[in-house]
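User: For my dataset I need records formatted as: sequence, then structure tokens, nothing else. Please produce one.
Assistant:
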Amino acid sequence: MSDAMKELLSILDLEPLEHNLFRGRSPQVGWQRVFGGQVIGQALVAAQRTVEEGRFVHSLHGYFMRPGDPSIPIIYRVERLRDGSSFSTRQVVAIQHGKAIFTLSASFQIDEPGLEHQIPMPLHVPMPEKLLSIRDMKEQYLEMAPKVVRKYLEREQPIDMKPVSLSHYLTKDPLPPEQNVWVRACGEVPDDRALQAAILAYLSDMTLLDTSLHAHGRVVFDPGIQVASLDHSMWFHHPCKLNDWLLYSQDSPMATGARGFNRGSIFTRDGVLIASTAQEGLIRVRD
């Protein structure tokens, strides 16, 4: 297991402070704000700690209100809204400097049988073994990359990625607002369904907002663009042990009002849809 993956597991192991109150920390890697996926994952962990055994998250909806400060802990306050016969609902507020930086609503359900269908996995997508990973690209292209990209690539990541296409990094021409990225945990994930869901929530925020920039020939590293997640929703369809590559298929139906709207579907290698995502993010031009 990579050191970055060990660190991710550590930051998801929140410290209990009081009834319904938890404290989380951030990795000290020199970033100016906390990664949104970390806050989503930690908030989900806090909610899960208050739900009885045998109920698993099936959906979450979060709003980012202020950037997180990585230099101080984040306090997570959980409100137990409802515990029914099949469902439990929780609301979590993440607090720093006495103010809310993020809110999460999450619903949990017992496993039940029922009607089933799903959309198919995208066709003609190369398998991950045929693609370069972020680590491979770091070895081959790090010296040629812009400074802000080098800073990102030099940091060890808990999640490895293999983009199906690198076109949006190599041109400033408009491209279709869609992308497929293979993702995988850098090391074995414990056999804990709640923790696996939190890690899946963490990685779901890694490339989603980028998709809305493709139609405009921009990337998140562009100094003329201000980007930030505004909200994030996720639906968990099937449990997944995260022990193999997953295909994260993303598209952006629309951008307007300095906001980009993005959707994602996460599939296993054999085509099972395990989760769906939706996110709106700030994409403000600062030229």
